[in-house]
């Protein structure tokens, strides 16, 4: 079933509505849908490298709004909806750990979840349930999701189709390296100021 769903998502790349499908997919994935928008973003950027940044912008906005929606679900409907989504993805045991992460790092842990392959929807829903700082949550979501999608777009814009095999093979490693570099930058700024 997941493979069929994935193929359905990729099929939108051939549609004239592919950009809007990308934004909607990014919105849905940030709060409840299983397929990440990266796959459709890559196919669109691969087909039209000069529009890669436009695709990344649509993907980022959709994802940030979807993250806010996930926060709202956790904040207002955790018992009715939030726990059902978390149980559906078998993330119930991770929910307690996310609570500990939010207690330690507040909304900044959202940054790591937004950029890496960690299930972002768990953090958006849990963020609302734990009533973490909403402006910081939004900022962390905006920076991390945009960085993730614009990095993919930049690769296709500058390198075109030749970069695809490397992204497919090393995406998780690249995401972790970029996250470490960005967090290191924040720590350095904190100590310098």
TrEMBL record:
Boundaries of every VTT domain copy: 41-157
Q: Which Pfam families match?
A: VTT_dom
The record lists the membrane-crossing segments as 20-43, 55-74, 102-120, 132-159, 171-192
A GO CC term attached to the entry = plasma membrane
Under the heading InterPro entries, the entry gives: DedA_domain, VTT_dom
Task: Tell me where on the tree of life, at the top rank, the source sits.
Answer: Bacteria
Transit peptide among keywords: no
Q: Which UniProt keywords apply?
A: Membrane, Transmembrane, Transmembrane helix
Q: Report the PANTHER family cross-referenced here.
A: ALKALINE PHOSPHATASE LIKE PROTEIN (PTHR42709), DEDA FAMILY PROTEIN (PTHR42709:SF11)
Name by which UniProt lists this protein: SNARE associated Golgi protein
The organism of origin for this protein? Desulfatibacillum aliphaticivorans
């Amino acid at each position: 079933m997941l493979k069929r769903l994935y193929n359905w998502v990729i099929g939108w790349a051939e549609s004239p509505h592919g950009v809007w499908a990308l934004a909607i997919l990014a919105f849905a994935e940030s709060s409840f849908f299983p397929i990440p928008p990266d796959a459709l973003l890559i196919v669109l950027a691969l087909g039209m490298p000069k529009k890669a940044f436009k695709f990344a912008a649509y993907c980022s906005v959709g994802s940030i709004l979807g993250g806010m929606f996930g926060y709202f679900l956790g904040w207002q409907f955790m018992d009715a909806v939030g726990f059902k989504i978390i149980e559906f993805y078998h993330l119930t045991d991770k929910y307690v750990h996310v609570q500990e992460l939010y207690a330690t790092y507040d909304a900044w842990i959202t940054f790591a979840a937004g950029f890496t392959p960690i299930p972002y929807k768990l953090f958006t829903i849990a963020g609302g349930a734990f009533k973490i700082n909403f402006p910081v949550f939004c900022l962390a979501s905006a920076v991390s999701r945009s960085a993730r999608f614009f990095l993919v777009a930049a690769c296709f814009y500058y390198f075109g189709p030749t970069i695809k095999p490397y992204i497919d093979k090393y995406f998780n490693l690249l995401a972790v390296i970029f996250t470490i570099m960005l967090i290191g930058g924040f720590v350095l700024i904190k100590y310098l100021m």
